[in-house]
Amino acid sequence: MPTSLTDTTALHNGVKMPWFGLGVFKVQEGSEVIESVKAAIKNGYRSIDTAAVYQNEEGVGKAIKESGISREELFITSKVWNSDQGYESTLQAYETSLKKLGLEYLDLYLIHWPGKDKFKDTWSALEKLYKDGRVRAIGVSNFKVHHLEELLKDCEIKPMVNQVEYHPHLTQKDLLAFCQSQGIQMEAWSPLKQGQILEDPVIKEIATKYEKTAAQIVLRWDLQTKVITIPKSIKEHRIIENADIFDFELSAEDMQKIDNLNKDERVGPDPDEFTAGFDA
Ligand SMILES: NC(=O)c1ccc[n+]([C@@H]2O[C@H](COP(=O)([O-])OP(=O)(O)OC[C@H]3O[C@@H](n4cnc5c(N)ncnc54)[C@H](OP(=O)(O)O)[C@@H]3O)[C@@H](O)[C@H]2O)c1
């Protein structure tokens, strides 16, 4: 089990990725994103998750520069947006993201959503970037088991990460087991169900028992299920609170209680139905 905010897990290619990071979805470009990323790094975070479609890569890059932490100590993820899927367009999108971030390389580059018929070409472009030493690890996001099975049929390099919606109301047990059997590290997006999970009475009850907040209980559950987690907050006190989860352990019984909350309920779109950007 990770014992500190900077603890990492080794991806299947040996690259070390922090178990915990900051997400910046819906964080405004400019001072909002700059201040939240700087607050996170100041308080010990080393992993930042952005995406081309969040339109805040420039601010993330600026915060990295101003953080005073060396590039090698940080783990930066971005994602190729749906409208850029395809081989050449993905290579181009990677350059655009790097330029906006002001970085020479990313630690992890993900296919944001599977779509229907382009993800194999997109994946070939990610493999090329990886083989050329332009990116340290490559992966996918929002891939269900059937998407992964399709990709694994002909890929040369297996994805190192699958970032998916994951919280106690959407525990994705089959997908997690499949990823683990393939050596693909699962990563949780919307780990707090965008705040909604914090109202769950069982989570609240467990929080009282451990003298922790509801957010801390859920984020600790992520780690104990061996899923990387990247909660978003623009408030420094919450950025600190969310990461303060390395001094307690949920019992097997309480882990089971949280697992039992599953209702296959999403806050985001179902990957089989999400077509935004693909019709462009
Ligand atoms: N790959 C994908 O398709 C995908 C999709 C969605 C998200 N993501 C990634 O996953 C990250 C996290 O997901 P998310 O941003 O959707 O949702 P989230 O992290 O589940 O929840 C964020 C919301 O919870 C609030 N919050 C954070 N900490 C809190 C705390 N301790 N107490 C109470 N409220 C708290 C935040 O408000 P304040 O900011 O006001 O504190 C914000 O409204 C994203 O930022 C993004 O990097 C990826």
Can you tag this structure with a few keywords?
about 280 residues; binds NADP nicotinamide-adenine-dinucleotide phosphate; about 40% helix; alpha/beta; two-stranded antiparallel sheet
Topology order in helix (H) and strand (E) letters: EEEHEHEHEHEHEHEHHEHH
Q: Could you name the ranges where pLDDT drops below 50 across 5 or more consecutive residues? A: none
Shape: globular
Query: What radius of gyration results from the CA coordinates?
Result: 18 Å
What fraction, in percent, of the residue positions are helical? 25-40%
Strand order of the largest sheet: 3-4-5-6-7-8-9-10
The span between the termini is 44 Å
Report mean pLDDT, rounded to a whole number: 97
Structural class: alpha/beta
Task: Report the portion of residues in β strands.
Answer: 5-15%
Ligands, deduplicated:
NADP nicotinamide-adenine-dinucleotide phosphate
Largest sheet: 8 strands, parallel
Number of helices: 10
